[in-house]
Protein backbone atom coordinates (compact mmCIF):
# COMPACT_ATOMS: atom_id res chain seq x y z
CA UNK A 1 0.00 0.00 0.00
CA UNK A 2 1.15 3.59 0.59
CA UNK A 3 1.47 6.33 3.21
CA UNK A 4 0.31 9.94 3.02
CA UNK A 5 0.17 13.17 5.03
CA UNK A 6 -1.90 16.31 4.67
CA UNK A 7 -1.52 19.66 6.42
CA UNK A 8 -4.03 22.49 6.90
CA UNK A 9 -3.35 25.68 8.85
CA UNK A 10 -1.10 28.69 8.95
CA UNK A 11 1.76 28.43 6.43
CA UNK A 12 4.68 26.25 7.49
CA UNK A 13 7.85 25.12 5.75
CA UNK A 14 6.97 21.73 4.33
CA UNK A 15 10.04 19.88 5.54
CA UNK A 16 8.90 20.44 9.13
CA UNK A 17 6.46 17.56 8.64
CA UNK A 18 8.29 15.53 6.01
CA UNK A 19 11.75 15.50 7.61
CA UNK A 20 11.78 17.17 11.01
CA UNK A 21 9.48 14.93 13.04
CA UNK A 22 10.53 11.70 14.76
CA UNK A 23 8.66 9.53 12.30
CA UNK A 24 7.87 11.80 9.36
CA UNK A 25 6.79 10.67 5.94
CA UNK A 26 10.34 10.34 4.65
CA UNK A 27 11.21 8.05 7.55
CA UNK A 28 8.02 6.10 6.82
CA UNK A 29 9.20 5.53 3.26
CA UNK A 30 11.79 3.19 4.80
CA UNK A 31 10.31 2.28 8.16
CA UNK A 32 6.51 2.30 8.05
CA UNK A 33 5.10 0.74 11.20
CA UNK A 34 1.38 0.45 10.47
CA UNK A 35 1.27 -0.23 6.74
CA UNK A 36 1.10 -3.46 4.78
CA UNK A 37 4.69 -2.88 3.65
CA UNK A 38 7.56 -1.53 5.73
CA UNK A 39 9.15 0.11 2.67
CA UNK A 40 7.32 2.52 0.37
CA UNK A 41 9.89 3.16 -2.33
CA UNK A 42 7.95 3.15 -5.61
CA UNK A 43 7.89 6.90 -6.05
CA UNK A 44 6.44 9.85 -4.20
CA UNK A 45 4.67 13.13 -4.75
CA UNK A 46 4.06 16.47 -3.10
CA UNK A 47 1.27 18.88 -3.97
CA UNK A 48 0.90 22.29 -2.34
CA UNK A 49 -1.13 25.49 -2.47
CA UNK A 50 0.35 28.95 -2.19
CA UNK A 51 -0.77 31.51 0.37
CA UNK A 52 -2.56 33.43 -2.39
CA UNK A 53 -4.65 30.40 -3.40
CA UNK A 54 -5.16 29.34 -6.99
CA UNK A 55 -4.21 26.03 -8.55
CA UNK A 56 -1.72 23.87 -6.69
CA UNK A 57 1.87 23.12 -7.63
CA UNK A 58 3.14 19.56 -7.73
CA UNK A 59 6.41 17.62 -7.71
CA UNK A 60 6.50 13.87 -8.40
CA UNK A 61 9.30 11.39 -8.94
CA UNK A 62 9.79 7.65 -9.31
CA UNK A 63 12.88 7.69 -7.11
CA UNK A 64 12.46 6.63 -3.48
CA UNK A 65 11.56 9.60 -1.29
CA UNK A 66 14.46 8.97 1.09
CA UNK A 67 17.06 9.45 -1.66
CA UNK A 68 15.71 12.44 -3.58
CA UNK A 69 17.85 15.49 -2.87
CA UNK A 70 15.58 17.70 -4.97
CA UNK A 71 12.66 16.93 -2.66
CA UNK A 72 14.79 17.75 0.39
CA UNK A 73 15.83 21.09 -1.13
CA UNK A 74 12.31 22.02 -2.22
CA UNK A 75 10.69 21.05 1.06
CA UNK A 76 13.16 23.17 3.02
CA UNK A 77 12.22 26.31 1.06
CA UNK A 78 8.50 25.99 0.28
CA UNK A 79 6.05 27.46 2.77
CA UNK A 80 2.42 26.43 2.39
CA UNK A 81 -0.87 26.60 4.32
CA UNK A 82 -2.19 23.40 2.73
CA UNK A 83 -0.31 20.49 1.21
CA UNK A 84 -0.59 16.74 0.58
CA UNK A 85 2.37 14.37 0.35
CA UNK A 86 2.36 10.69 -0.65
CA UNK A 87 4.85 7.82 -0.77
CA UNK A 88 3.95 4.90 -3.00
CA UNK A 89 4.13 1.13 -2.67
CA UNK A 90 2.67 -0.22 -5.89
CA UNK A 91 -0.01 -2.90 -5.90
CA UNK A 92 1.02 -4.02 -9.38
CA UNK A 93 0.90 -1.04 -11.71
CA UNK A 94 4.19 0.28 -13.14
CA UNK A 95 6.59 2.55 -11.30
CA UNK A 96 6.25 5.68 -13.42
CA UNK A 97 5.72 9.35 -12.73
CA UNK A 98 2.13 9.41 -14.00
CA UNK A 99 1.24 6.79 -11.40
CA UNK A 100 2.58 8.86 -8.49
CA UNK A 101 0.18 10.76 -6.26
CA UNK A 102 -1.12 13.39 -5.75
CA UNK A 103 -3.30 13.35 -8.81
CA UNK A 104 -4.31 16.80 -9.97
CA UNK A 105 -7.18 18.32 -11.92
CA UNK A 106 -7.62 22.08 -11.92
CA UNK A 107 -7.58 23.19 -8.29
CA UNK A 108 -8.02 19.64 -6.95
CA UNK A 109 -5.42 17.35 -5.41
CA UNK A 110 -6.15 13.70 -4.53
CA UNK A 111 -4.20 10.98 -2.70
CA UNK A 112 -5.17 7.37 -1.96
CA UNK A 113 -3.84 4.57 0.21
CA UNK A 114 -5.44 1.23 -0.57
CA UNK A 115 -6.64 -0.76 -3.54
CA UNK A 116 -9.66 -1.39 -5.74
CA UNK A 117 -9.83 -5.18 -5.59
CA UNK A 118 -10.58 -6.75 -8.95
CA UNK A 119 -9.56 -3.56 -10.73
CA UNK A 120 -8.31 -5.28 -13.86
CA UNK A 121 -11.64 -7.08 -14.27
CA UNK A 122 -13.60 -3.86 -13.66
CA UNK A 123 -11.29 -1.42 -15.38
CA UNK A 124 -13.13 -1.18 -18.69
CA UNK A 125 -16.50 -0.55 -17.01
CA UNK A 126 -15.02 2.02 -14.65
CA UNK A 127 -13.20 3.87 -17.41
CA UNK A 128 -16.29 4.01 -19.60
CA UNK A 129 -18.16 5.72 -16.75
CA UNK A 130 -15.72 8.65 -16.71
CA UNK A 131 -17.09 11.82 -18.30
CA UNK A 132 -15.72 11.98 -21.88
CA UNK A 133 -14.69 15.59 -21.29
CA UNK A 134 -12.48 14.42 -18.42
CA UNK A 135 -11.19 11.19 -19.92
CA UNK A 136 -8.06 12.62 -21.56
CA UNK A 137 -6.86 13.80 -18.16
CA UNK A 138 -6.12 10.20 -17.12
CA UNK A 139 -2.44 9.75 -17.87
CA UNK A 140 -1.46 6.80 -15.66
CA UNK A 141 -2.65 3.26 -15.11
CA UNK A 142 -3.61 3.14 -11.42
CA UNK A 143 -6.92 2.35 -9.81
CA UNK A 144 -6.41 5.46 -7.65
CA UNK A 145 -6.45 7.84 -10.61
CA UNK A 146 -9.59 6.22 -12.01
CA UNK A 147 -11.29 6.62 -8.63
CA UNK A 148 -10.37 10.32 -8.68
CA UNK A 149 -11.82 10.79 -12.15
CA UNK A 150 -15.00 8.96 -11.18
CA UNK A 151 -15.36 11.40 -8.29
CA UNK A 152 -14.88 14.30 -10.72
CA UNK A 153 -17.47 12.72 -13.00
CA UNK A 154 -20.00 12.36 -10.18
CA UNK A 155 -19.78 16.01 -9.08
CA UNK A 156 -16.64 16.65 -7.05
CA UNK A 157 -16.76 20.36 -7.91
CA UNK A 158 -20.26 20.95 -6.54
CA UNK A 159 -20.62 18.24 -3.87
CA UNK A 160 -17.20 16.89 -2.89
CA UNK A 161 -18.09 14.33 -0.27
CA UNK A 162 -21.24 13.18 -2.07
CA UNK A 163 -19.28 12.75 -5.28
CA UNK A 164 -16.76 10.48 -3.56
CA UNK A 165 -19.60 8.51 -1.97
CA UNK A 166 -21.13 8.03 -5.42
CA UNK A 167 -17.79 7.07 -6.95
CA UNK A 168 -17.19 4.45 -4.26
CA UNK A 169 -20.76 3.19 -4.55
CA UNK A 170 -20.30 2.82 -8.29
CA UNK A 171 -17.05 0.88 -7.84
CA UNK A 172 -18.71 -1.44 -5.31
CA UNK A 173 -21.72 -2.09 -7.54
CA UNK A 174 -19.43 -2.71 -10.52
CA UNK A 175 -17.37 -5.05 -8.38
CA UNK A 176 -20.43 -7.08 -7.40
CA UNK A 177 -21.33 -7.44 -11.08
CA UNK A 178 -17.88 -8.98 -11.58
CA UNK A 179 -18.06 -11.23 -8.53
CA UNK A 180 -15.86 -9.01 -6.33
CA UNK A 181 -17.26 -9.01 -2.81
CA UNK A 182 -15.06 -6.33 -1.20
CA UNK A 183 -14.05 -3.96 -3.97
CA UNK A 184 -12.82 -0.91 -2.05
CA UNK A 185 -10.02 -0.46 0.47
CA UNK A 186 -9.07 3.17 1.00
CA UNK A 187 -8.03 6.14 2.96
CA UNK A 188 -8.33 9.29 0.86
CA UNK A 189 -7.16 12.87 1.12
CA UNK A 190 -8.38 15.51 -1.29
CA UNK A 191 -8.54 19.29 -1.41
CA UNK A 192 -9.68 22.23 -3.50
CA UNK A 193 -7.23 24.60 -1.81
CA UNK A 194 -9.86 25.93 0.62
CA UNK A 195 -10.87 22.80 2.51
CA UNK A 196 -9.30 19.42 3.13
CA UNK A 197 -11.29 16.19 3.15
CA UNK A 198 -10.07 12.88 4.56
CA UNK A 199 -11.93 9.57 4.35
CA UNK A 200 -11.38 6.17 5.97
CA UNK A 201 -13.48 3.39 4.44
CA UNK A 202 -13.39 -0.17 3.12
CA UNK A 203 -16.10 -2.47 1.78
CA UNK A 204 -15.22 -5.09 4.41
CA UNK A 205 -15.10 -2.49 7.22
CA UNK A 206 -11.44 -3.21 8.00
CA UNK A 207 -9.81 -0.05 6.69
CA UNK A 208 -6.18 1.00 6.68
CA UNK A 209 -5.12 3.31 9.50
CA UNK A 210 -5.76 7.05 9.48
CA UNK A 211 -5.17 9.67 12.19
CA UNK A 212 -5.84 13.37 12.71
CA UNK A 213 -4.00 15.66 15.10
CA UNK A 214 -5.81 16.59 18.30
CA UNK A 215 -6.98 20.17 18.83
CA UNK A 216 -4.50 22.85 19.83
CA UNK A 217 -5.64 23.19 23.44
CA UNK A 218 -5.34 19.45 24.08
CA UNK A 219 -1.90 19.15 22.50
CA UNK A 220 -0.50 22.21 24.27
CA UNK A 221 -1.90 21.14 27.65
CA UNK A 222 -0.33 17.71 27.32
CA UNK A 223 3.05 19.00 26.09
CA UNK A 224 3.47 22.58 27.37
CA UNK A 225 7.25 22.65 26.85
CA UNK A 226 7.26 21.50 23.23
CA UNK A 227 8.48 24.41 21.09
CA UNK A 228 6.77 23.16 17.92
CA UNK A 229 3.41 22.83 19.65
CA UNK A 230 3.61 26.38 21.01
CA UNK A 231 3.24 27.61 17.42
CA UNK A 232 -0.02 25.74 16.82
CA UNK A 233 -3.24 27.66 16.19
CA UNK A 234 -6.87 26.60 16.42
CA UNK A 235 -6.84 26.06 12.65
CA UNK A 236 -3.88 23.66 12.58
CA UNK A 237 -4.70 20.10 11.55
CA UNK A 238 -2.50 17.28 10.27
CA UNK A 239 -3.93 14.07 8.80
CA UNK A 240 -1.59 11.08 8.54
CA UNK A 241 -1.62 7.41 7.63
CA UNK A 242 0.35 6.79 10.80
CA UNK A 243 1.55 9.05 13.62
CA UNK A 244 4.58 11.26 13.07
CA UNK A 245 5.67 10.84 16.70
CA UNK A 246 5.02 8.68 19.75
CA UNK A 247 3.95 11.56 21.98
CA UNK A 248 0.77 10.60 23.86
CA UNK A 249 -2.49 12.35 23.12
CA UNK A 250 -1.38 14.04 19.91
CA UNK A 251 -2.99 11.67 17.40
CA UNK A 252 -6.63 10.62 17.24
CA UNK A 253 -7.65 7.58 15.18
CA UNK A 254 -10.27 8.36 12.54
CA UNK A 255 -13.19 5.93 13.00
CA UNK A 256 -14.17 3.37 10.39
CA UNK A 257 -16.44 4.65 7.58
CA UNK A 258 -15.85 8.30 8.52
CA UNK A 259 -15.10 11.49 6.62
CA UNK A 260 -13.40 14.59 8.00
CA UNK A 261 -14.00 18.06 6.59
CA UNK A 262 -11.18 20.35 7.71
CA UNK A 263 -11.81 24.03 7.12
CA UNK A 264 -11.55 27.49 8.60
CA UNK A 265 -13.73 27.56 11.68
CA UNK A 266 -15.43 24.42 12.92
CA UNK A 267 -14.29 21.15 11.39
CA UNK A 268 -16.76 18.35 10.69
CA UNK A 269 -16.69 14.58 11.22
CA UNK A 270 -19.48 12.74 9.42
CA UNK A 271 -20.34 9.16 8.42
CA UNK A 272 -19.13 8.06 4.99
CA UNK A 273 -21.92 6.21 3.18
CA UNK A 274 -21.30 5.03 -0.41
CA UNK A 275 -24.22 5.59 -2.78
CA UNK A 276 -24.95 3.85 -6.06
CA UNK A 277 -25.45 6.75 -8.50
CA UNK A 278 -28.47 7.02 -10.72
CA UNK A 279 -27.99 5.24 -14.07
CA UNK A 280 -28.02 8.52 -15.99
CA UNK A 281 -25.17 9.84 -13.83
CA UNK A 282 -23.14 6.67 -14.36
From TrEMBL:
Domain of life assignment: Bacteria
Species whose genome carries this gene: Solirubrobacter pauli
Protein name in UniProt: Glutamine amidotransferase
Position of the signal peptide: none
Keywords, comma-separated and alphabetical: Glutamine amidotransferase, Transferase
PROSITE patterns: GATASE_TYPE_2
Molecular function as annotated in GO: transferase activity
Family matches, as SUPFAM superfamilies: N-terminal nucleophile aminohydrolases (Ntn hydrolases)
Lineage: Bacteria, Bacillati, Actinomycetota, Thermoleophilia, Solirubrobacterales
InterPro entries associated with the record: EgtC-like, Gamma-glu_amide_hydrolase, GATase_2_dom, Ntn_hydrolases_N
UniProt domain Glutamine amidotransferase type-2: residue ranges: 2-282
Amino acid sequence: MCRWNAYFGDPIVIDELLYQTDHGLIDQSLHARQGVETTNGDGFGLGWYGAAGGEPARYRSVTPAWSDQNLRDLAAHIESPLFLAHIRATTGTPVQQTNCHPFKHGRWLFVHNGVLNGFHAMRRDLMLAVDPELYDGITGSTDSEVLFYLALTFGLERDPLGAVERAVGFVESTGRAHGVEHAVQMTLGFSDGERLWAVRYSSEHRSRTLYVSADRATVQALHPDNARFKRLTDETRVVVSEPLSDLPGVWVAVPEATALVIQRGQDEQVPFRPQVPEPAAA
